[in-house]
Amino acid sequence: MTTATIKGRPRGFDRDQALEAALMEFWRHGYEATSIATLTRAMGINPPSLYAAFGDKRKLFSAAVQRYAQTHGDYGSRALDQPTARGVVETMLRLAATEYTDAHHPPGCLVIDGATNTSEASQDVAEELRAYREDTKHAIADRITADIQAGSLPPKTDAPALATFYAAVIQGMSTQARDGASEQDLQRVADVALAAWPA
């Protein structure tokens, strides 16, 4: 149990465990479909404790997304450790296939699917997740550009288009996982996608 306090009183729950529980609810149902009642039940706390510890549902969601990026969704940053653009893309695809179908958590990707069908009132949530996706896509494009400049990719390679293609594949893999695709299915998708890599 954490020793952090709220207004001088000991906080009677483990913040990390509560945040992980909230993450799972947002991942499973999406931002708008996840209610405060659902969250507090999953987190094992009451609404005042949620507001005191996390601010509100919107701030809790941002904290959950940050946790996701550092845990279940860290395959993107892990892939960027590879020395070549192709290595980055292949590692990202392979890890996504494994992570999206892991039976220990909801299928797919929170950053891809967490703001599906949001209303006008929640457009800031959609924009937050879009920014994560765009950052990853731009990081892939930067690595492709670096390899073009180094001479390991053809000079006429369209780095932004190639990065967008692989980003689209990864997003599609998330949807397929939510529709019941297995890891083996998604690894085959990765095989086909990698066949499009410039010679």
Automatic annotation (TrEMBL):
It comes from the Bacteria. InterPro entries: DNA-bd_HTH_TetR-type_CS, Homeodomain-like_sf, HTH_TetR, Tet_transcr_reg_TetR-rel_C_sf, TetR_C. The lineage of its organism: Bacteria, Bacillati, Actinomycetota, Actinomycetes, Catenulisporales. Residues 35-54 bind DNA. Pfam families: TetR_C_13 (PF16925), TetR_N (PF00440). Keywords: DNA-binding, Transcription, Transcription regulation. This is Transcriptional regulator, TetR family. GO terms for molecular function: DNA binding. PROSITE patterns: HTH_TETR_1, HTH_TETR_2. Residues 12-72 form the HTH tetR-type domain.
